[in-house]
Amino acid sequence: MAHNPFDLRQVIESVGAGLVQMARSKSQQLAIEFRNIDGTRLLGDDMRLSQVLLNLLGNALKFTPRRGRIRLDVSEFSRDADHVTFRFSVSDTGIGIAPEFMGRLFKPFEQADNGISRNYGGTGLGLAVSRHLVELMEGHIHAESVLGQGTCVHFSIRFEIDKSTAETGKGAAAPDSPPDFGGRRILIVDDVKINRLVLVSFLRGTNTLIDETENGAEAVEKILASPPGYYSLVFMDVQMPVMDGCTATRTIRSSNHPDARRLPIIAMTANVFKEDVQEVHDAGMNGHIGKPIDLQLVLDTIRKTILA
Question: What pTM was estimated for this model as a whole?
Fold first, then answer.
């Protein structure tokens, strides 16, 4: 697990900034409340913390109707000489969860109702990943919900205090800089807007240029109309309306575009069985990332693909 120095308020504000546009597009209220946060610098895995917050807030935005309310409360829970524990609560006024489904809420490949995916775009599988990440950070997570009224997910994590940061600033440990991808352009293809937003928010500060489309047909159109070398990488969802990712990839590979065969295309899909992985490779894709997306794997994939 990473042991990076970071500022908790800055991490949370960065996550929130990337979700404001999504909330506004649905006329939702997104509020972040800090309680008893004194600016103490911490040591821990800020990337995993960001992914948990993006997953939980993304779910809240996705499953809350227009003009609903989403709130993140962050408070200090306990402290000793070397460590501080923070409690995070993500609440919404969304569709809620029936009591009979609460016991399966954090299990992989579980969802409350097949209609959820059709009506809201996605299954909420990010909850299973969130639980895994919180537990990797030796934290605890649980949820409360009332069907038709909303859900609140609480988690707590204990961080080490960064004692290298003195009041004078001498000897302060510098946080890891985000990777610099040299202004390369990436195309994100996914029919679920919140999935695109999570990636765009996460890649902010990495010196990447990002285009988005919501189906394979639009991706084909963009790529075939682009000059050679315009795109350095494509993240391609597999299951999409209008044109799926495998069909789009075959169309691109069989075209006369100069980049048709050399453009890296990485599949993004919740289908992670051996035959699913084989299908995307047979379609001409260069790799596969399972959903819910592991953001560290996204960074590693970009590094290996466009910086090699």
Answer: 0.73
- Residue 101's φ and ψ, nearest 5 degrees, are -100, -10
92 in Cβ contact with 68 (< 8 Å)? yes
In angstroms, what CA-CA distances link 156 with 16, 113, 118, 287?
19, 28, 32, 35
Q: Closest Cα to residue 12, out of 301, 39, 120?
A: 39
Q: 78, 89 in Cβ contact below 8 A?
A: no
Token digits of residue 207 = 């010196």
Burial of 117 (0-12, 13-18, 19+ CB in 10 A): middle
Do the Cβ atoms of 124 and 62 come closer than 8 Å? yes
Measured in residues, the chain has a length of 308
Sign of CA dihedral 5, 7, 8, 10: negative
Q: Which residues contact 76 (CB under 8 A, 6 or more apart)?
A: 35, 36, 37, 38, 84, 85, 86, 87
The answer to whether the CB of 1 falls within 8 A of the CB of 137 is yes
pLDDT digits (tens, 9 = 90+) for 247-265: 999 999 999 999 999 999 9
Q: What is the pLDDT of residues 36-72, one digit of tens each?
A: 888 889 999 988 898 899 889 988 998 899 999 999 9
Cα dihedral 180, 185, 189, 192, rounded to 10, equals: 50
pLDDT digits (tens, 9 = 90+) for 213-257: 999 999 999 999 999 999 999 999 999 999 999 999 999 999 999
Q: Are 178 and 214 in contact (CB under 8 A)?
A: no
